[in-house]
């Protein structure tokens, strides 16, 4: 069964050109089923903070790490064989690379690719000037203001998919939005992938926690899109982590290879907590991260030349007082900008930073740290921004309130990335002629012509006069308003239609796979 | 009486070079009297988002506004005479300027200058790569979590001076931190200037609400620093607003001229709420702002050639739903970056953006909007960042909690502006040699050598594990912790020593001036 033939493979930039007016009109209609843009085409440059000389120093240090110290590829002889054949120096599981070798290998990866969604209007373009916002990934806990923190369940997982699907400001359904701990570990991936397909018609991510789970995830996309289509097009992403410092373990390289083999995109991500998995100094952590990601990206090309891959990165810092990891701090934000500069020299799509905070509540700390971190992703030129919405408590909690607050922020970032348009209309000389000194622009022809598309207007921020806010608005903070919003959104949610035959085939596959698996919790 | 002779007129860049270690050590000592750096020297480039071609289009539109529409200078014949003598086309109060004329006039203003503080260690350098954080300015209301919103008093005013003085992350005492409404309007400026001198030893701002109040403010600095010193050095700033669109009223130009005449720095600021005082489109608002500020800057040079002046700007947006002004939104943030590019072409110090939010509470909205706005000031290259700390409810409320939260954020921005240092130590190759693959950096020689200065560590953010936060920490949000912090800081505050003779002379002056003024409320 194939749905591939129905897919619009045309220019998705065109679809990205929905006007602000259309978006705004859509937003006014309600809180669900709002047609946003499928992804953003940035109209502001990246923020390049480091000089050519310093970039080269970092690259040279990365080359020295790769050539003199090397990286270990543990528990995956196939990967080690790939390296041998590619001409790397292999001693046991330790692999060393001559300068320039990995850059040459990754040159076969596309600088930009389309990830297809089951609704082709939601196909995302990853790379170049495109920006895709995707929910946070991987928390064991969820929380909301009513029930507090608790372990995530499949119901929570599906709720977050529904909230993401309902937001016009997210572009992607994400992957392990939270861990559904009420489903056995060895079967969980099937329910997660199915939930993404069932409750969202956007692009999504599959499992990476074991090679067979990666294979299952991909197999489900073959049922949905057709095997042929999947072999020719990216329809699923797998987010694989380096075991920093300088170790790739077999679970991850096997999943990485499973995605590459199927022509699907692995996202290669070292998570470097400075002082623990890498040096406490930014330049060294960046060099390490560059080396580790580069090796992972190259491995995808050895598995299948030309497979899409995303150059990923995740820098973090540490509290001197408590030894705890810290998030949304300035050093990783600044480091991300440098990662962006380096990734662009490799011509690979970038995943970098996201919306992180250590706060346990959707409070001022959460939004300040979250925005510092999120803006670094925007400025560094990240193309795929995982963790755009929902995280609290580092990476541990997915918050319902924070999720809708972050999604609203993603809306503001659409306007931010639109930059400043300079043309006769926006320069508004006619408005100055009309209004003149000492008057106002409120009813001017220029204002009437432009006001509907002029400014971002949050659906969560309070912009009322104090009296109205306190008397009619109940003196709420934004977290309270977010609490109301996610409930309304879930109440109004309608699932996007899914072909019955595809649905049944997916359920059959899941049932067969589960029957073949051991009972219990793994 | 003169204290000018005691002033260190040496290189204040040197003083800016306190190391991170010193700062961090200082921070650990407590919450008051922490020696921070007197100002920041930025180590990251500005974020230039617009092309040369588009910058020129904006400049040309500004030139057309100035030449064809012009600006009105109302109720100040001296200003109009200045323009006549300078060769502008004057019809009544309407003044039109030939292209290039104003740029030529402002060329005599310094691109960078020192504002002296009564403690020379706190002198600030304004211009170039220097960044100075100053408290918010001008709210009629104050609020804290215990007592809610109320009109500001002189006690509140002094409390905020004390909180600013105690923060190592602010550099300037500011001006009208809040309106002390318990002091008559016509006498208020004397108490405000005296409070800055008495409770802070940092640089500060004077009154602009009437020419004689500007003169009084400056006269008080002559008592403190000596008349000769003041004539040769900048010791006080005056923040003057354009009456946008395209009107300068006499109260403001007279104050502007009073500051310039005394060789003190006026800050020239159009406040353009898009759709009301200017076009709803960013490019037009920027052109207008550029034209209005340029005219104000030029006027200072006609009053006294070579007087210091700061090119200011304040863009804002509007809610389509309520018609209320909105703050911390993406369009003004992006517009500020363009203002920065234009100001640098004029080689004038820049004041732009600040920390703004419409929220009525120190919540997630407040910190998200505040940071978006504040980072735009950082990125656009603002040298003097007024409104760095305290605002809520647009410009209407000075919040005790928000003030210390913002001051803490200013600390993080010190690390942000430090950028990425690239040298052998930070590249850390020796650390990779020592640690190797699969181990950790926690106790490595490189970590031990660097960890104390590696990462920003907030005194307000919670970075504890969830259990510790909920059991020992009382499950607080950041606003609750901020509420505790400002009380502790005020309880521990010690006034910087002030020479008795100077203090008495200042009090004498105030008493004489007040006696000469009408009773009652103006």
UniProtKB/TrEMBL annotation, chains A, B:
Q: Where is the signal peptide?
A: none
Q: Where is the region Disordered?
A: 1-32
Tell me what this protein is called: Methyltransferase
Comp. bias regions, Basic and acidic residues: 1-13
Entry keywords, A to Z: Methyltransferase, Transferase
Pfam families reported in the protein's UniProt record: MTTB
Transferase listed as a keyword:
yes
Q: Give the molecular function GO annotations.
A: methyltransferase activity
Q: Which top EC class is given? A: transferase
The family classification in the record reads:
Belongs to the trimethylamine methyltransferase family.
In its UniProt entry, the species of origin is given as Rhizobium jaguaris
Which GO terms of type biological process are on file? methanogenesis; methylation
Where is the sequence biased in composition, kind Basic residues?
14-26
Q: Does the keyword Transferase apply?
A: yes
Q: What Enzyme Commission number(s) does the record list for this chain?
A: 2.1.1.-
